[in-house]
Every structure is written in C-alpha cells, then in structure tokens.
Amino acid sequence: MRSLFLALGLLAGVVHAEPVVLEELKLQAEYPVEGINGGNLSGLALCGEIMWAVSDRDDDRLYQLQLDGSLLRAEAETFVAPEPPESALPWGLRMRNWAAGLVRGGKLDFEGLSCDAQGNRYLVSETRAAVLQVSSNGNAQWLNLPSGLVRQARASGMLLHFNQGFEGIAIDPAGERLWLAAEQRRRGLTVMHRRGSGWRCTGGCVLTSESGEEASPEALGGHMAPRDFSGLAYFGEKLFTLERQAHRICRRTLGDGEMDICWSFAGEALAEQRRYARTYGMAEALWIDKDGAWIGVDNGGQTRADGESRPLVWRLAAPKGGWSRRP
C-alpha cells in the first residue's frame, strides 16, 4: 500500500509539474540575403572562413555569402551533379517528388548542407534520400550510402510522407561520420560511418525516431503541430537539432540521439517586427560554432511585419556556459 501511495504521489508530481523554461538565446546580428534564386534558403555551413548556403530550388549551385554592409550577398558557385543513384523510396513518393520538381523547380530538393575539414561540402537531397558531395574544386559525386538506410528509416516510421523526408545533414570534421535528420511524422536521426569509398551502418542506421505533437510558442497561438527537425549540426562531439516549430535548438548525444538540453530562440524570432502572417516556423538551416549559432530563415516569399521580404541569416550568441555545459 505504501508503494502504491508513493507511485500515485510521483504521478501527481508529474501531472502538476511546471513546464520547463528554456534559456533564451540572444540575437547578435540579422542579415538579409541578396541573390539567392527565388529567395529560398535551405542550408548553411561555415567552411573555414567561408559561409555557404544552398537553395532547395537549385540543383546546380551553392552560394557563397559575402558580407556587404548590413546584408549578405550571395555569389553562385555552379557544379554538375551526376545522375543520382536509383531511389529506394516507393514509386508513389518518387512520382509526387518528380511532379513537384516540375512545378516549383529543384528536382533534387537540396534541404541541408554541411562540410568537413578538407573543404568538401555535403548536400542532402530530400527527393532522392541521397547525399551529394561537392569537393573544394567543384567536382560533384553522390555518396555510396548503405542500401538498407531508407528501408530501416521507413521501418522506423520515417520517410513515409511526401515532403517530409531528410531535412538536415551533419558530418564530422574528419569526414568519417555522417548524420541525416528526417523532418516529421515521424522525425528521426540516422547515422553512417565511412568505410573506404562507401558508407555503412554500424549496429543499424537509425539512432532515434519519434512522433507526436507539441505546442508552438504562445506568441504563435500555442497551437499543436507535429514535432520536427529542420536542420542538423555537429559540434564538440554532440549533435544539435534545429526544431523549427518549437523555435529551439537542442543538443543531443551521438550514441543514441537522445536530447539532453535545449535553448529557445522564440523571444528573438517572434519579436513584433519579425512576425509573419503564417503561424509556423521558418527556420531551415543551422550551423554551430563555439561562439554561437547561425540560423537560416526561408521566408517562403512572405513579407514580415517590418516589410522585409528577403531570406535571412541570424547570428545568435552561445548560451551561458557554452554549448557543452551540463544540463
């Protein structure tokens, strides 16, 4: 009986627990981006001293972002992507992806960007569930990913729905470990290790997957929406996920993808002058360094309250105690 009362007491404590208040990250700078085709910005990576961006509407170029006064000016670097490998996605999804590419442009739908210490850039194609490597000299080739990657991801509930595939990518500086983030319904993380000229999953491709909904920040009405990942970054032997709908960055362990601490950027992103008419998040790209975070905002052609209609890059200061602090 005593154990029953103890269990009930613990349950009551969970039910009545106060919601966790996340530390708010501070905005240091905001840069409108000029020169990206159609204004779509879906990935960011700081490779050495150069900031690169990718658009999900372009299949043949990366953009080098150059600081020009108070804005970032995009200069295109073109490449030729070989014919992509045969897709492991089912026929129905392939056909919907093909049709969407015809209508909006961007048949490969590059949704994330990362780079290694050798200057190679890595782009994840949502429509093909594949990764393109663009070397520092502009040569492009598709990675030889494990044949079981898509099968295992789908068995875990990921990659089942149109336009909800791999949305983020991260690679370690040595170019030996590669992670992909599936967007939503279910969202999840996968990992691969390089073996010679190919990649393999060691102990399985899937780190974690989860479904469910959560409330948006009160400034957006607190409506429920699917949990999502819209960006992924590697820093200091940790993974960092950009969680667009919740307006937060979360640190996760490499071994199992479990979350151990999160920080909010809702206070800055949802300030009155930065509001859009749409009630969902637009943060699409993430890069982490020791001093802070870079977040890319794909505004989808929308104009916000202060009249700004270009995509944006935000620079947020690192949290108190740094990114590696204990929870």
Provide the residue-averaged pLDDT.
Answer: 90
How much helicity do the residues have?
A: 10-25%
Q: pLDDT below 50 for ≥5 consecutive residues: which ranges?
A: 1-18
Structural class: mainly beta
- Structural shape: globular
Give me the count of strands. Answer: 24
Looking at the structure, the CATH topology is Neuraminidase
Q: At the first level of CATH, what is the class?
A: Mainly Beta
Largest sheet: 8 strands, mixed
Number of helices: 4
Cα gyration radius (Å):
20 Å
The CATH architecture: 6 Propeller
Kindly, what is the distance between the CA atoms of the first and last residues, rounded to a whole number of angstroms? 35 Å
SSE pattern, N- to C-terminal: HEEEEEEHEEEEHEEEEEEEEEEEHEEE
Protein name: Esterase-like activity of phytase family protein
Pfam family, one: Phytase-like
InterPro entries: Phytase-like_dom
Keywords: Signal
